[in-house]
Amino acid sequence: MMRRQNLHSNFPLAFAAALAVLALPGCSRFSGRPGPDPEIERPSQVLDFDTLYKQNCSGCHGAGGKGGAAVSLADPVYLALVDDTTLRRVTANGVPRTAMPAFAHSAGGTLTDQQIDVLVREIRARWAKPDALGGARPPSYTASAPGDAARGAEVYEMFCASCHGPGGKGRGKLGSIVDGSYLALVSDQGLRTTVLVGVPDLGAPDWRRNLPGRPMTDQEVSDVLAWLVSQRPQFPGQPYASGPRPATGGSQ
Fold first, then answer.
1. CA distance 232 to 185
2. If we measure between CA atoms, which residue out of 211, 53, 245, 176 comes closest to residue 61?
3. What is this structure's pTM?
4. Tally of domains within the chain
5. Looking at the domain assignment, is residue 243 inside a domain?
6. pLDDT at residue 4 above 60?
């Protein structure tokens, strides 16, 4: 009986000693318990260009700014034609009715203004070249005057048909540039940009090199753009002709 009483009387001392041991430096860190400093940055705190570009841009614009489905951001000709205000606006707000999403928090995206600034600044710093145009005076990046689709068909035959085939329906490895699905997914400005800068990853020349010694004029770019836009279907991807669908019979 006396021994049991001694055990009970010593229990508070033993419990206090155990707590003291746990409080010793190095003993309070159990497996899986985070340390006093966060080990992973919050997504909004990431300001490393390579990380931001890989996570947000490379899927469409390609690793290192080349080889993607969208315009090559590492193309010095493109960067010579587009200014930082446009780059920032497109990155922040996207391009409606195309595959380019908005990335700014204010537009429902995932990036802060500071992160967008990092992307725009570093794209320019890493990939632009001051002599990219070789002294040539380019057409304006955005249309300065309306184009004429009828004249654009003639411009297409002169500058583009040798690669893209009659009527733009493709030739060899080059697919159709009047395909309804393609035209539905690209904006008017996207088409103009492609005419201006070409697709260097695929060997497609810019506005200066379709014909040797004969660059396209600003009006010719606008005209061929008007012709391309005129090929865009009103209801792209619609599987049925207009009018009532034929009856199939049977219950559904």
1. 10
2. 53
3. 0.77
4. 2
5. no
6. no
